Amino acid sequence: MARNIVDTLQPRSAVPATLIGVGLGLGAGSLVAASVSALAGYFARRVVTPEERRTGNSIIREVVTDAEGKLWLHFTKDSDTSEPGPCSFLTEFDSCALRLSAPEPVPGKPRLVARKIEKVYHGTLQGVRRGNLSGAIYEHPSDLGFDAEDVVVPLEGGDGPAWLVRGSANVDIWVIGVHGRGARRNETIRALPALGELGVTTLLMSYRNDGLAPGAPDGRYGLGDTEWHDVEAGIQFALDNGAKRIILMGWSMGGAISLQTADRSELARHIDSLILVGPVINWVDVLSHQARANKIPQSVGLFGQWLLSNKAGRWVTGQAAPVNLRRLNWVERADELKLPTLIMHSRDDEFVPNGPSLKLAALRPDLVTLKTFSKAGHTREPNVDPQGFAQAITGFLGKRMALLETI
């Protein structure tokens, strides 16, 4: 049976009667209702609360040295450790960071998967048993041979560190990289080979709550509904330093942020186009998917969405203001899209499913160029198919730049 996907969340001025029943409960059902309410509140808080600690789910079973003296990590085989393409391995508090190869089978040990250590960025594996695997495989632009200047973007809450990679042939065209939820600016480094080929200038920026830029006053994510102010500051920085046209490149939640910037910023007239990688096009779809993936009942998931998007939920989520989920739904707002947009999204993305990307592309073929990938997890398109990823960028931006030359 096909799953029911919720595409829209209708705003309500009051708590629905069914949710009041869930939230309050009466008589014999009060304990169950309280448990449901607590689960919905936990779900909603997790969505908007940055994670300070990541203990890691990928378990190292063996560290092996091969005949050439190269070190290999043997992990317990699961969907994360066996995901195609190279990755990085990060331990708690980022005390150790490694770049690992694509996975390979371990002969005679079908329950294990092997990845070679390609580079040690910092730290040591001594005493390490588990960590997180990430698609952000580079720590600094120099890891790909790019010279990067450390610059500061004045944000609403203070100074945000950024890397500036100056262009060659097209120095006044700036691409601003906007990373995703729970990530940092190094996530966007993987686009530099394609952007360097085009000779554009690139600004890889940080924004509120990412652990580098100052946090938001409430310490909560706005899912794009607030972070766009920081990207607007990035655009102003670019304009102040010689940019004439801007391209926003958003990854995951950075896609939602980029769409809001293009829609709501007073500087939007300077934005030529958007490039979105594994983007959140409709948060309601993502939240519904995550609730199902975590075996949360639909009613609980809907209650969690309601808590996120209504003032009454602020005491549970800790948000200064509710998130406007309807404003973040670009399937429903497809007719309001104004800019040429390249969407790159894997059909095998299990964190942010590509359904809304496909729908937006179908609704706006006049503006949206869609490049689909296979076998790539969330935002790992450049890891699994670097050539296809680069070609999609150079093809799309090459046409945009040729058009700009005629204006």
TrEMBL record:
<dbReference type="InterPro" id="IPR000073">
    <property type="entry name" value="AB_hydrolase_1"/>
</dbReference>
<dbReference type="InterPro" id="IPR029058">
    <property type="entry name" value="AB_hydrolase_fold"/>
</dbReference>
<keyword id="KW-0472">Membrane</keyword>
<feature type="domain" description="AB hydrolase-1">
    <location>
        <begin position="178"/>
        <end position="392"/>
    </location>
</feature>
<keyword id="KW-0812">Transmembrane</keyword>
<dbReference type="Pfam" id="PF12697">
    <property type="entry name" value="Abhydrolase_6"/>
</dbReference>
<protein>
    <recommendedName>
        <fullName>AB hydrolase-1 domain-containing protein</fullName>
    </recommendedName>
</protein>
<dbReference type="InterPro" id="IPR052920">
    <property type="entry name" value="DNA-binding_regulatory"/>
</dbReference>
<feature type="transmembrane region" description="Helical">
    <location>
        <begin position="20"/>
        <end position="44"/>
    </location>
</feature>
<keyword id="KW-1133">Transmembrane helix</keyword>
